[in-house]
Amino acid sequence: MSAPAATTPTPGTPNRADELRRQLVERNIAAILDATLAQLERDPRPSLGAIAKAAGVSRPTLYAHFPTREDLIEATAKRALAEAQREIAAAGIDDGPASDALQRLITAGWRALARHLAIARLALDVLPPERLRQIHQEALAPLRRLITRGQRAGEFRDDQPAEWMVTVFYALVHAAADDVTSGRLDAQAAASLISGSTLGAFQPHDKTPTGTT
């Protein structure tokens, strides 16, 4: 009886060892990002050694995944932004009047951001403005879509480009985050202030703001 023919792996198909290595890399990265967020709750500028220890990895392993401190901060900020995106997606901002949807977006987005103000503050301090804006591009996409919808419906002003209105909102949110982390503003009040300022900036000139005569 002849021996069974050896199985030839399909080109491009990962073998068991490759799969285990991939899983280990994913676990290490998740542990490092989790540890970074946890350490930031205790120290606004944790050392990489402290982060590696909390993550249960060696410093060389941390550097293998994140060669610079800026790379680690960027990845951690992206993790926090992904959480905000999930909450915004669940807020149903494509439904109902654009002004109501904007308030839901702000409430959901700020709720997520308020949980991670330390990484937001550190990212503002460490990352160059263009790099910081770039990592927000995907998170800002729902707002761009909402502004365009509001402009078409006549709910938002259309005398300014949508991208400029995104910039206005972006600046307001980061100003609020800065004031909260500096102790000048209560985190619970921030969402309401952001909402009021944003709606005021987005409102068409021919509409009288609520509460005025």
- Quick one: CATH superfamily of the largest domain? Tetracycline Repressor, domain 2
CATH class of the largest domain: Mainly Alpha
CATH architecture type of the largest domain: Orthogonal Bundle
Number of domains: 2
Shape: elongated
Query: In percent terms, what proportion of residues is strand?
Result: under 5%
Q: Write down the secondary-structure element order.
A: HHHHHHHHH
Query: Based on helices, strands and strand pairing, what is the structural class?
Result: mainly alpha
CATH topology of the largest domain: Tetracycline Repressor, domain 2
Rg (C-alpha, Å): 22 Å
The parts where pLDDT drops under 50 for at least 5 residues are none
Largest sheet: none
Estimate the helix proportion, in percent: 55-70%
Overall pLDDT, averaged?
87
Total beta strands:
0
Number of continuous helical runs: 9
Euclidean distance between termini CA atoms:
97 Å
Give an overview of the whole structure.
This protein is mostly helical. It has two domains: 17-67, Arc Repressor Mutant, subunit A (Orthogonal Bundle); 70-202, Tetracycline Repressor, domain 2 (Orthogonal Bundle), CATH 1.10.357. The protein is 69% helix and 0% strand. It has helices at 16-40, 48-55, 59-65, 69-89, 98-114, 117-126, 129-152, 162-181, 187-202. Helix 1 crosses helix 2 (48-55) and helix 4 (69-89) packs across helix 6 (117-126). The longest helix has 25 residues, at 16-40. The chain is elongated. The chain starts with 15 loop residues before the first helix and ends in an 11-residue tail after the last helix.
